[in-house]
């Protein structure tokens, strides 16, 4: 089986394993194991599908980003809706086993593969004419030998490519670090006891508004394009600092102010994601685009991992405050 087929199949198979383990979980470690499978599926899926976008029209980046943003809010709303009508969390997760089935059908049965991907092999895509007067970020002219596809890249070439990507990768990692620092460390502590919403409902609305912001901004690249991702990183860090101080000093008078900040957080995160990969796709040469997009996936994962390492002890510390 071709490697592209294998990666997609593995990604789809990890999803039902995650749903089954979590739905039948009897302890925290079993739940964590399920989350690990979910993370493997998410990371492998992002790596595989972003790499495959290099074989399609450049506008597919916008479609991919919008779809992943829509998946977040659809997932949150579907879980809330199914549990609200009376399904238990266990049965709700089991119903969600339909998702990997739809993934396999859509990829193997619905997706029309381009001529540049015969037999689903990793061959170089033909030059795309819609790039316009792009400013090459990664071009063959910078290499001593002509690279015809990503399979021929050696360590030296890969290091060179990653160095050229750092201007996008570092800001994206910072954005996701600050973003998931808020999500993992502060959401639960932004609690308003006098609100008409219960604690769990407040948390649910935070997640929904965050996903709404992500969806809106990930769908915006055809209207607004941003080159300087570092600006979004700086704004997200300020956002995280404000919300951390709000948890510590409790100075927000209304939950609606927090709602606005969280929607804003999602907008910044989604905009940084879609513009990072859109810029890389447009500025990379045809032969290196697949590897460049795949390598840049490390950024958001690194930011999320580092934020989790900091958010967990900080959350416990804030919980112990009088």
TrEMBL record:
Keyword GTP-binding among UniProt keywords: no
Lipid bilayer topology: Multi-pass membrane protein
Subcellular location: Endomembrane system; Lysosome membrane
Record-linked InterPro entries: Battenin_disease_Cln3, Battenin_disease_Cln3_subgr, MFS_trans_sf
Pfam families to which the protein is assigned, alphabetical: CLN3
Sorted UniProt keywords: Lysosome, Membrane, Transmembrane, Transmembrane helix, Transport
Main location: membrane
Record has Transport as a keyword: yes
Highest rank taxon of the organism: Eukaryota
Transmembrane parts of this sequence: 12-40, 60-80, 92-112, 168-192, 229-249, 255-274
UniProt region (Disordered), positions on chain: 121-145
Segments forming a coiled coil: none
Family statement: Belongs to the battenin family.
UniProt protein name: Battenin
